[in-house]
Each structure stands twice: as structure tokens, then as C-alpha cells.
Recover the amino acids of this structure.
């Protein structure tokens, strides 16, 4: 088999395959055994007719076409492998030459992952990794957050509502456009609000600050135009609210008792843990920033043409992320589109620029991984699957088998390889370049 590769625009690879006549003859022998049982020839049991008689009644062309089909199916993967083409979409097969005693020729045209030849990017690794210092101020702020996480809610009915309070209210909401006799679109006798958490429509919480328990309050505001609930988006509303109960977080002091409450022995141990966590977080933030800087410069100097199929898949992932985000607030994609007066096709195109950049970065990271001979072992993939098995209370072996059977095992490997390449760029810091370098 001979294979020739031609790169076409939009990351389409054209692989031309030529198969020797002897291989075609062998394939025809096998093809005859496949097709002979499909035809009734007078005087012979089905499947028992000699080949010369079959060819006289049915035609040699039937065997030739079947042989061609089988050869395409059997040699497709091998041809792409020899041409170093990684397909990302369904191929188009075009048979260009098929005849007795002649080489069999066919073309494969398929969108493929672009092959990136990275230039020398050593100079980018001189980019400094600037990690912020773990200061006493940051440690104090972090300890305050730990204490806040251990706060107990205590009654504060004799105090005006303040930010951070958890209040229970009666809540009725009316559309102003429906006038005095409007039916409430919300009517709740025990609605709970975390004041300052931003979980209700913007402006409602702020206007409750300073209100006392059992003090009626009328609040007027306008829903945002992009609100996912179409019937409320951009509408002026009136809320009738009465605070029934007010509870306030009682934050414990930062001391040994706090340390013991979070499972540690002493305040000193808690302080060390907080300092170590801060150090790790600030280091990761610095690496992320450095990676963004390096990737930005790499994209400027390497032209990457990515196939539409890969971009469409990235858009699909973004839409899935949007669906999950909307679901957490009780909304749907359809409601979101209606509130923005947008079609699914328009949203798809709105995501395209971001998706294109994401795919470019993935392709570049894969090229970096190749340039540094980075690999991900089966054991590394299995270890990354283990937390999922634990979460679903499944045996690791069963979960790994499922990942392999669905193709997700290799998808995890690919993601881990991208992470390794990203970590290499983020963490590898070369010394200052020599003059003229």
C-alpha cells in the first residue's frame, strides 16, 4: 500500500491510497465469499455456485465493488496512521481507480487535527514567575474567613437587619404594569434571604437593610433586562415584605478553640495550615498568569488554522456549561434565549470566537507536549478516575472498564496531557538570557 498526503485549507487532509493489484485480487476472493450467498442462481443451492458461473450470471463488477468496499474499510485506519493524520470528523471517500489487474486507488478527505511545527520558544521560558508574598495581612484575612465558616446563627430580632443576617420574611411580588388589582407572581409566607449573598433580584436585599422585625416594607425595583425569567425581564415590580425573624452569625474568636473546631490541635497549627494553603494558592495564581502570558505570545507567533468540527465541539461544551449554570438558578436555555431575544444559532455564533481560541490553545499545548516528549501513563489516568469511583461508590476496576468501553479513558488521558503541557509552560523558568540571545 502506498500513501500520499496533501494538506488542504481548513485543516482538511487528503490522503491518497494506492493498493497493489495482487492485494485487490486477494480481496476479490474474500469478497466473492461474502456476496455469493446473497444471490439465487438457477440449478445451485444458495452460496454453492462456482465463481465463474456466478460472474456469468451476476457480473464480476459486483465482486469488484465488494472488494473495494472491504479494502477501504480495512485499510482506512492504517492509511491515516501512515500519513500521521488524526481525524476529527467523518471522512469523505472517493474511489478514483478500480479495475481488474490494475492498482486500486482511493482518496480520503477528512478534517483533522492541525499539525503544528513549533518554532523555538525557549525565550518565552525566561518569563518571570512572580509569586505574591504571604503577608501577615493575608493570613489574618484568611483566619477571619475560617472563623466565619464556624459561625453560629443566633437570634437578632431586636436589631435592624444588617448585611450577613439570615432573615425569614413574608414576600409578595406584583407587576406594576398590572395595577392595583394585580395577582402576585410570588406569594411566600416564609421566604429565607441571606442578606448580602446576592441570591435574590438585585436591589431587594439592600432595601431590607435597617428594617426591624414585624416592620412592613414596600420595595420597588426593576428586574434586569437579561433576567432568565422572561415574564419578569425588564419589568418594574413592587414587593410587599415583612421580616418575621432575624438571625445573625456569631463569629467565634480566632484561638485554640477555633483550631480544634476545624480538627487541629492548636492555633499555631491552624496558622501554619492557613499560611501553607495561601502559599499554594498564590503560587497557582502566579503560574496561571504566567501561562496566560506565554500562551498569548505563542499564539502571536504561530499561525493555527483549526477545523470547524473541533470549534463546534468546543461550542457544544460551552453550551453545556451554560445549561448547568442556568439549572443552578432554576432556569433553562430556552428561557435564557427568549430573555435575550436570541436564536440558538445566534448564541452558537456568539460563542465561536471564544471556542476558537480555546481550541487553538489546546492544539498548541499538544504541540508543546510533543516537543517535550510528555506522556500520560495508564496508571496516571486510573488514579485520576479513582475520585470519581469513590464518589459514586463503585469499584475502581469497574469504573475503569466503563471509561475504556466509552472512549472516555483516552479523553481523560488527553486532558491530563494538556495539563502537563500547561504546567510545563507555567512552571519552567529559565535564567535570564545571555546578551544577544
Amino acid at each position: 500500500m502506498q500513501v500520499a498526503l496533501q494538506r488542504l485549507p481548513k485543516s482538511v487532509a487528503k490522503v491518497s491510497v494506492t493498493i497493489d493489484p495482487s492485494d485487490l485480487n486477494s480481496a476479490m476472493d474474500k469478497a466473492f465469499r461474502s456476496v455469493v450467498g446473497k444471490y439465487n442462481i438457477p440449478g445451485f443451492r444458495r452460496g454453492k455456485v462456482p465463481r465463474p458461473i456466478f460472474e456469468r450470471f451476476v457480473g464480476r463488477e459486483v465482486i469488484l465493488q465488494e472488494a473495494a468496499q472491504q479494502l477501504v474499510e480495512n485499510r482506512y485506519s492504517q492509511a491515516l496512521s501512515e500519513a500521521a493524520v488524526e481525524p476529527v470528523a467523518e471522512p469523505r471517500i472517493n474511489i478514483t481507480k478500480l479495475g481488474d489487474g490494475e492498482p486500486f486507488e482511493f482518496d480520503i478527505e477528512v478534517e483533522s487535527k492541525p499539525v503544528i511545527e513549533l518554532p523555538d520558544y525557549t525565550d518565552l521560558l525566561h518569563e518571570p514567575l512572580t509569586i505574591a508574598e504571604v503577608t501577615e495581612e493575608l493570613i489574618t484575612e484568611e483566619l477571619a474567613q475560617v472563623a466565619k465558616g464556624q459561625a453560629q446563627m443566633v437570634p437578632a430580632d431586636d436589631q435592624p437587619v444588617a448585611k450577613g443576617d439570615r432573615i425569614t420574611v413574608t414576600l409578595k411580588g406584583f407587576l406594576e404594569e398590572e395595577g392595583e388589582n394585580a395577582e402576585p407572581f410570588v406569594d411566600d409566607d416564609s421566604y429565607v434571604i441571606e442578606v448580602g449573598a446576592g441570591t435574590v433580584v438585585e436591589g431587594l436585599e439592600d432595601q431590607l437593610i435597617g428594617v426591624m422585625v414585624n416592620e412592613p416594607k414596600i420595595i420597588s425595583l426593576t428586574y434586569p433586562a437579561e433576567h432568565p425569567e422572561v415574564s419578569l425581564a425588564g419589568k418594574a415590580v413592587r414587593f410587599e415584605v415583612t421580616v418575621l425573624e432575624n438571625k445573625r452569625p456569631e463569629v467565634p474568636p480566632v484561638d485554640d478553640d477555633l483550631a480544634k473546631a476545624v480538627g487541629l490541635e492548636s492555633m499555631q497549627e491552624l496558622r501554619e495550615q492557613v499560611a501553607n494553603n495561601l502559599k499554594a494558592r498564590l503560587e497557582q495564581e502566579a503560574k496561571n498568569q504566567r501561562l496566560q502570558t506565554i500562551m498569548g505570545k505563542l499564539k502571536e507567533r504561530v499561525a493555527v488554522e483549526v477545523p470547524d468540527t473541533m470549534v463546534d465541539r468546543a461550542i457544544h461544551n460551552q453550551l453545556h456549561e451554560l445549561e448547568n449554570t442556568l439549572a443552578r438558578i432554576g432556569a433553562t436555555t430556552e428561557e435564557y434565549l427568549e430573555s435575550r431575544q436570541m436564536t440558538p444559532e445566534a448564541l452558537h455564533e456568539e460563542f465561536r470566537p471564544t471556542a476558537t481560541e480555546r481550541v487553538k490553545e489546546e492544539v498548541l499545548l499538544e504541540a508543546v507536549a510533543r516537543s517535550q516528549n510528555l506522556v500520560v501513563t495508564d496508571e496516571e489516568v486510573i488514579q485520576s478516575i479513582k475520585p470519581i469511583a469513590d464518589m459514586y461508590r463503585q469499584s475502581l476496576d469497574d469504573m475503569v472498564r466503563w471509561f475504556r468501553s466509552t472512549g472516555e479513558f483516552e479523553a481523560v488521558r488527553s486532558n491530563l496531557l494538556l495539563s502537563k503541557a500547561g504546567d510545563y509552560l507555567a512552571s519552567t523558568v529559565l535564567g535570564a538570557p545571555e546578551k544577544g540571545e
Summary: The first helix runs from residue 21 to 35. The longest strand covers residues 236-250.
